[in-house]
Amino acid sequence: MKTDNSAKKVNSVKKERREKKEKLTIEKRILQLSFFGSVLFIVAEGVMAWFTHSHSLWTDCLFDAADLVMIGPFLVLVPLLYKPVTEKHPYGYAQVESLFLLVKYSVLLALTCNLMVENIKLLLHGGHEVDAGSIAIFELLVCLGCAGMYLLLGHYSKKYESTTIKAELYMWKLDVISSMGVAVAFAVQMILFTTRFRFLTPYIDPAVAVIMALLLIKEPVKEIFQSIKNLILFAPEEDVLNQIRGIVDKHMNDYPYEVTFLDVIQTGRKLWVEVYIGNKTDVIHISILHRVRDEIKQELKYKYDQVYIEIIPD
């Protein structure tokens, strides 16, 4: 019996290592594709913005460039996120990811606010004219390119989706929406130019830049607060706690123990759950604790990336 249990444990460890290796490969591939795709679009946007002097194109280009600067170093950091927990690093390198996302979104927030202020100043000073037709066609092509990249990354992320992958997918989705919005706005400017409302055309470009900044500002603010919570090891959101509590209680009902306290910490992609249990007798069966721990972990691993469970007698 002991031999069977040992063999199962060894197989389980091997399977877990194999899964981690596959996840690392998928994540690196997605980040590399996103990196090279971003380089291509940033160069194209930068050249077009320089030729047309469009502030909305500069806004999009600089926002993408700030995101790109963050992807490069993160490609180096990704393998660290899969290193096991040690005495020296009790939480592994999960907080590195939270710190990295905090820096990334803080830079994006500062950049977005600065661009918004500059374009508001431009609006107050009468705006400026740009080649609306060229920009509309260019943005439509960018929209199609970004949509293709989003679908490609989405295909790979079906196998595995970390917080970093979600952030990259969000950025590409945002690029699709913003590019389409800019294309429509400049198409409208072309129509206005042939009507009595042509006096509005100088305001279209800076107005689009301000609207883009307002739309872009929500996600950095949200992620900054989430990253701070992860860094200082706050408990996750109430709905996450309730979901975990429900799963723990469901499995505990099959055993002669009751949950007295649930301690949950989430930092980056890692989730730590400590379940404190009470018992009506003074007898604790270690084999039962291991079994219920494995059952809870097995269910939680399908909902969360890297899960660590401890069952502790209170």
TrEMBL record:
<protein>
    <submittedName>
        <fullName>Cation diffusion facilitator family transporter</fullName>
    </submittedName>
</protein>
<dbReference type="InterPro" id="IPR050291">
    <property type="entry name" value="CDF_Transporter"/>
</dbReference>
<keyword id="KW-1133">Transmembrane helix</keyword>
<feature type="transmembrane region" description="Helical">
    <location>
        <begin position="30"/>
        <end position="51"/>
    </location>
</feature>
<feature type="transmembrane region" description="Helical">
    <location>
        <begin position="99"/>
        <end position="117"/>
    </location>
</feature>
<keyword id="KW-0472">Membrane</keyword>
<comment type="similarity">
    <text>Belongs to the cation diffusion facilitator (CDF) transporter (TC 2.A.4) family.</text>
</comment>
<keyword id="KW-0812">Transmembrane</keyword>
<feature type="domain" description="Cation efflux protein transmembrane">
    <location>
        <begin position="32"/>
        <end position="232"/>
    </location>
</feature>
<dbReference type="InterPro" id="IPR027469">
    <property type="entry name" value="Cation_efflux_TMD_sf"/>
</dbReference>
<dbReference type="InterPro" id="IPR058533">
    <property type="entry name" value="Cation_efflux_TM"/>
</dbReference>
<feature type="transmembrane region" description="Helical">
    <location>
        <begin position="174"/>
        <end position="193"/>
    </location>
</feature>
<dbReference type="InterPro" id="IPR002524">
    <property type="entry name" value="Cation_efflux"/>
</dbReference>
<feature type="transmembrane region" description="Helical">
    <location>
        <begin position="132"/>
        <end position="153"/>
    </location>
</feature>
<keyword id="KW-0813">Transport</keyword>
<dbReference type="Pfam" id="PF01545">
    <property type="entry name" value="Cation_efflux"/>
</dbReference>
